[in-house]
Structure formats: C-alpha cells, structure tokens
Design a protein that fits this description.
single chain, mainly alpha, elongated
C-alpha cells in the first residue's frame, strides 16, 4: 500500500493528476493492477488518506485547542495549524493536491466544519458581522487560505507559509470585524 501511495504521488507530481494512469502507478510500484485495486478503488482514492488525517487533526486536536479562546484567537490558531499541516505535508505533495481535478476541493469537509463553528461563535458573540452567512465566510476564508498555499507552491516554498497566512487573515478580519 505504501509503495503504491509513494509511486502515485511521485507520478502525479511529475505528470499531473490526469497524466498519471493506474497502469503507470502499478509499473512504478512493481505491483499488479489487481494489487492496486485491493488497496484503492480509484486513482482519486489515493488522496483520501491525506484528507482524512487532516480532517481528523482539525476535528479532534485543533477543535480542543480553540476552547475558551476569542474568535480572533481561534481563527489565528486555525490558520497556523492549517499552514503547519500544509508545510509538513511538503511542497511536492501540495503541488499534486493543488490541481483542478482534485475533487476534494469541491466538498465540505470536517476541517471546514471546525471553521464554521469558529465563525458562528464569532457572529453570535458579536465579533463578526452577519452581513454574510457563516457558510459564505467559511468559503471565503478557506479560499483565501488555499490561495496562500497555492502561491507558496508556485513560489517553491520560498516564503513562510504561516506568516503569510496570518497576514492575509489579519487583512480579512479587518473587513469582517464588527466596528
């Protein structure tokens, strides 16, 4: 399973998600196509582990770290952990993930539910305006954080991801904070 995963990530980095075939993955991993299907249902299923682990980190660990903090502190913790997660995942894997064929970007995941709870907390506490729905704000914030990650990938990781995310978050907060 690990050989298939590593071969997949290498090929997806070299050839893109669409340019990587299951046959090529199997050849690189020195396994049969049947062995591939014993572990994965599809090429896209290979990415599942990355997202599952990230979602569990936020659902359990990060959510616990937010208790008793202000909305602004919670958002900063969220952004810091998101930056660390992506930096720890590594530039090569992040480049594979940031492609238009990655369907994981189009679904709401547990990580975003943690962010939704932060926004709802901020709106109910009067820290964040209700001019936009909490769900819309989640989409905007998550899109912004992903944009910073994408820029980091394009820049070959040449800037501090956490620092840039916090700077962008600060700018965003100035726009949604209650005056």
């Amino acid at each position: 399973r690990e050989r298939i995963y590593k071969a997949s990530m290498t090929l997806m980095y070299e050839n893109g998600f669409q340019g990587t075939t299951i046959r090529a993955i199997c050849d690189r991993a020195s396994v049969s196509v049947g062995t591939f299907y014993n572990y994965f249902r599809s090429k896209g299923d290979i990415l599942h582990d990355i997202y599952y682990e990230a979602d569990e980190l936020f659902r359990v660990t990060v959510a616990q770290q937010l208790d008793g903090k202000s909305c602004t502190e919670q958002l900063k913790i969220f952004a810091q952990r998101y930056a660390k997660l992506n930096a720890d995942t590594g530039l090569d894997v992040m480049r594979v993930l940031y492609n238009p064929e990655n369907t994981w970007f189009s679904i709401r995941r547990p990580m975003q539910e943690v962010l939704l709870n932060i926004i709802e907390h901020g709106q109910s506490g009067g820290d964040i305006t209700t001019d936009n729905s909490a769900s819309d704000l989640v989409d905007y914030i998550f899109g912004m954080l992903r944009g910073v990650c994408y820029s980091w990938c394009v820049a070959n990781g040449e800037f501090d991801l956490e620092q840039r995310m916090l700077a962008m978050l600060e700018l965003f907060l100035k726009g949604i904070a209650k005056k």
